[in-house]
Write a structure and sequence with these properties.
The protein has 257 residues and is α/β, with parallel strands linked by helices. The protein contains eleven helices and eight strands. Strands 1-2-3-4-5-6-7-8 form an eight-stranded parallel beta barrel, surrounded by six helices. The structure holds 2-phosphoglycolic acid. 2-phosphoglycolic acid binds at residues 9, 166, 171-172, 211-214, 232-236.
């Protein structure tokens, strides 16, 4: 059984004080949903305060990006050793970072390796643009992103990696992929590609999230799909009630399995 994982990607929202106040309200309400992993990914500057506030709670912390080098002349960057002890997860490959900061598949692969080398767990985001989707290129494109991201990553590392399928045209647009469509891409372009690389058992054990306009009213439909193991959530993760509801629905859909 794959434990569902619901991760809130806060993006560039919430000051450190707002972030701490938010998780203090959130954490008690997320107790009792142990059938799901619950993760919040605040902006870097809020991470120490949030990590402290969440100590002793079941809610885990993630970062939104990382540099692949340990240290060096890389202005504005944060490395894996700097995140050690503060976070368990780190999102990499998010389409906004690919698009606005020029992150390439090779960088994403290097970031994944750096995180793993420091005992941190990558959440690797992949997904196609609207034009790729309309041109019928989704499967080939996402499959290639997955192959590139996993270059030289050994099979033993897979248990510490999560993949998030996020069609770019569904992020923050209110327009989500249909659950069946998302499940088909996750199965064919991610799980089957991983099966080719690592074998069926390893691929079946991998956790793959859907992301892109996930909300309480569509969550159950996504979580009811067999290959979707959780969600990477932007907008709805910024509201306590919505995030709690998403976790509740994930447990409802997957908990009894
Ligand atoms: P959204 O963002 O839920 O606001 O669409 C998802 C994401 O970018 O991870």
């Amino acid at each position: 059984m794959r434990t569902p994982i619901i991760a809130g990607n806060w993006k560039m929202y919430k000051t450190p004080a707002e972030a701490v106040a938010f998780v203090k309200e959130l954490a008690p309400r997320l107790a009792g949903f142990d059938a799901a992993e619950r993760v919040v990914c605040p902006p870097y500057v809020a991470i120490p305060g949030v990590a402290e506030a969440l100590k002793g709670t079941p809610v885990k912390v993630g970062a939104q990006n990382v540099h692949w080098e340990k240290q060096g002349a890389f202005t504005g960057q944060v490395s894996a050793p700097m995140l050690q002890g503060l976070v368990e997860y780190c999102i990499i490959g998010h389409s906004e970072v690919r698009q606005y900061l020029g992150e390439t598949d090779e960088m994403i692969n290097n970031k994944a390796k750096a995180l793993l080398a420091h005992g941190l767990k990558p959440i690797i985001a992949v997904g196609e643009s609207l034009s790729q989707n309309e041109a019928g290129e989704t499967e080939a494109f996402v499959g290639a992103q997955v192959q590139a991201a996993f270059t030289d990553i050994p099979v033993e590392a897979l248990a510490n990696i999560v993949v998030a399928y996020e069609p770019i045209w569904a992020i923050g647009t209110g327009k989500s992929a249909s659950p069946e469509q998302a499940n088909a891409i996750i199965k064919r372009a991610i799980r089957d590609v991983l099966a080719d690389l690592y074998g069926q058992d390893a691929a079946q054990a991998m956790r793959i999230q859907y992301g892109g306009s996930v909300k309480p009213d569509n969550m159950l439909a996504f979580m009811s799909q067999p290959d979707i193991d959780g969600a990477l959530v932007g907008g709805a993760a910024l509201k306590v009630n919505d995030f709690v509801k998403l976790v509740e629905l994930a447990v409802e859909a997957k908990g009894a399995r």
